Amino acid sequence: MVCSSAERLNIGQAAARSGVSAKMIRYYESLGLLPKVGRTESGYRQYGAAEVHTLRFIRRARTLGFGMAEIAALLQLWQDRERASKEVKRIALERIEDLEKKIGEMQAMKNTLENLALGCQGDDRPDCPILDDLASQRPELPKSRPLDQILP
């Protein structure tokens, strides 16, 4: 449900309509991602449709993995009707590059765990190559190459 442009919501109502917790709304406000809003005479924050829309924008950006600095840049671009879309695309492509790197690292972890699990008998014997590997004093493996290319 979207609020009308004149309707004012307290933080709990804004949280419910945006899908962002009240705690996170306060946090986003403290970072400057969400502009300071008006308050009632008793000091309660009041949010309108624009703030709820901004909160939904932030929530969606977070679900796509953007960090706070990236979200701040995207918010500025979103609010600038004369923006160059190339800036938005650049930020998105950087996010994709970061995701691809993380996917590669996670795939390497998965491959390593699969290989270790294959070597484990999983029976009543106490010996376990998984625990042996975890207890080994191996130095940190480089992250630029998949672990299955590094491990024997």
UniProtKB/TrEMBL annotation:
GO terms for cellular component: cytoplasm. Its main location: cytoplasm. It comes from the Bacteria. Keywords: Coiled coil, Cytoplasm, Transcription, Transcription regulation. GO terms for molecular function: copper ion binding; DNA binding; DNA-binding transcription factor activity. Residues 89-116 form a coiled coil. Residues 8-77 form the HTH merR-type domain. The keyword Cell cycle does not apply. It is found in: Cytoplasm. GO terms for biological process: positive regulation of DNA-templated transcription. It holds the Pfam family MerR-DNA-bind. NCBIfam families: CueR. This is Cu(I)-responsive transcriptional regulator. The lineage of its organism: Bacteria, Pseudomonadati, Pseudomonadota, Gammaproteobacteria, Methylococcales.
